[in-house]
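RETRY 2/3 - previous attempt timed out on the joint model. Re-submitting the same 596-residue input unchanged.
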Amino acid sequence: MSIPTLFAIIAISFFMIRVAPGGPFDANRKATPEVMANLNKAYHLDEPLPEQFGRYLWGVLHLDFGPSFKYRDYTVSELIFRGFPISLEIGLWAMLISSTVGIFLGTFAALKQNSAWDYTVMTIGMTGIAIPTFVTAPIYQLIFGLALGWLPVAGWDGGWQHKVLPILALSIPNIAAISRLTRGSMIESLRSNHVRTARAKGLGVRLTVTRHALLGGLLPTLAYLGPATAGIVTGSVVIERAFAIPGIGRYFVEAASNRDYTLVMGTVIFYGVLIIIANLIVDLLYSLVDPKVRYE
Amino acid sequence: MSEAAFELIHGSDHGATVAGRSKLKDGFGRMRRNKMAMVGLVVLAIIVLACALGPFVLPFDPNASDFDSISIPPAFEGGHLFGTDDLGRDLLARVLEGGRTSLLIGVLATVVAITIGISYGSIAGFFGGAVDTVMMRIVDVLYSLPFLFFVIMLTMVLGRGIESILIAIGALLWLTIAVIVRGQTLSLKHKEFIEAARAGGMKPFAIVRQHIIPNTIGPVIVYASLLVPEVILGESFLSYLGLGVQEPQSSWGTLIDGGAQAMDTAPWQLIVPGLFLAATLFSLNFIADGLRDAFDPKDR
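RETRY 2/3 succeeded.
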């Protein structure tokens, strides 16, 4: 399933960019026809489309996304791998924090269903979902950066101070989504027969929850981690712009506004691969945890 | 895909029921007792009315610069209730104007997505077999594409502007609806009334149009209510990145982007459009939750 998806991503991006209006070289000044011909030749734009596509596909398989049209001295791969470690660090932290906090809050709310705690968690959840990161990020900057002066407003030097706000802003919506989902499935799981049986034969609340209810209740949450990765990837684009972090997301946005076609294609394909890998990992974990699912 | 949509799909194998007329009434009755949903409905109605009527009522032109009143904080005197921006334009007028764009895109792109999703899903489900396999494989592949990135690429192809955002979002958000409608169709197509229609000599496409699609409307309405906030969010996301609605047109996303840049001197420029967007998304989410609670057979 992941191979055809990957192929589709590459094919769709390639042909979409090819029909996009405006070549990469007719930006500012008009070059002479000879220069244009040479440029087209140098970038293989004079070949028939299928041949170009084959060449591109072959390149992608070798992690070669071609040269960037805008940053003439760099290849797309160089730019991607320069930004990736930074994006990955923020993304992984956000993933870790949002899943642990989200699962904890969701389980807690489910155990105290319809109490004040429950409503508090759910209200936070709703707020986190309804207020998008491009609103919350500047507000955090306003509060923690400008008003309180605890943390730098934006920028990146690798120190932890520069990481706190981006990771926080990226985690909150996912904490909200995961805690809501976990709460729902935990409530269902707590009502199921085997949990009632465990309680009836005298098992304590704590043991019942950890041994019997939690595993079943966390299955939907586990399955959601795939879409959550896509959410974090998308969110990181906003975060990197808001906090001026030199990750892949910033290259992508710049490339999209500069019509740097190879860089756009490269980043989209790269993101696609990341999401596919995340989904694959989640599927494998799921089959490990849920005996009803088996992959031959 | 939103979390609620995710639940909707993964919960759909529990055997969805066909909503009869009385059930619809029941549902709306339950909905009316849901306080949060009703509050959401009222708030949304106020915002929609304000955006629709505001530009006729307000004394300020959203695009007219006034260099005598640059970056005025919100105040009653002077008439700039929500202050002005760094070109002296009235922020309330701009937010209402931008809200028209955001809400319009939200509704229209949802309609596009629903139309594609219903036709696609019902055809795949009704004809089954190889048609179904191929069509749903395509959906599977499209599902795993990073949605907003493809919207951005599509707007590069179509050129920036409201129409292309509309088409791009609508053309990519129909997947979940197609999956839901297909599931519904599968459970419907062996029912007696379909058999009767078939026996009566009705053509397949006519059966789909007249018998299948009307019976899948219930879940579609619930999901559509989830889709509208998703579209509005997507549009604001693009506009925030500078890849969506372009000057001189504005939407909540472009206003938030502008506000974020002016936040150290004039924080209200960020907070006012942010509040409007958040209030809209809040109420739409509460309404969607209410609709789902009222119509989902899995009683929560």
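DSSP finds 13 helices and no strands in chain B. Closing ticket.
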